[in-house]
Write the structure tokens for this entry.
Amino acid sequence: MIELYYWATPNGHKITIFLEEAHLDYKIIPVNIAKGEQFNPDFLKISPNNRIPAIIDTEPTDKKESISIFESGAILLYLAQKTGKFLSSDIRQYAKTLEWLFWQVGGLGPMAGQNHHFGLYAPEKIPYAVDRYVKETNRLYGVLNKQLEGKDYIVGDYSIADMACYPWIVPYANQQQDITEFPHLEAWFKRMGEREGVIRAYKIAEQFKQPTVTEDSRSILFGQTASTIN
């Protein structure tokens, strides 16, 4: 059984996509980040960075005590290795998958996240910041579009790289991107959205959908310092 600490965010969607695609037994433990539940001491024990998602695997392959994991990329890699799914055993394909997984967690996610922040949530619009992150998001879309040329999925076969990237492309309109400018990316995006596991994952998310960034939640979500978790 996988216990998934979750909220309906792009990083949360990554894990429900995997779990649905792999048909693993799991239960969701909601962590309402708008209410500050990510700072609960019990949650911080498994996710010291006070971010969702996190998991507890109550049945690890070594048959010993439960394992907790935080960081969405690490969770995807762990689950892929646990199940033997969505991560090739071929050394070259394995390496390619990790490249694009790390590309997402180190590039696409953070840059699109800053795009969202300065474009949608910042209390004042700073033109330089908005322009900076919209352009960088556009560049990253171009990188992914080029990689997808002639391929159904990012590394050829469906993998955790696709699961990592897709949720960060879903809000492309909020990122001020025209997806039709990227034909290979657009075709992949449509293909991903038609997968049954992806459909189920986003259906699950609907029960947790509510405005995350509100006037009341801004101070919880933004401007955190070390004192927040001490």
Summary: The radius of gyration is 18 Å. The CA atoms of residues 197 and 203 lie 10 Å apart. The first strand starts at residue 2 and ends at 6. The chain has two domains: 2-85+208-229, 91-194.
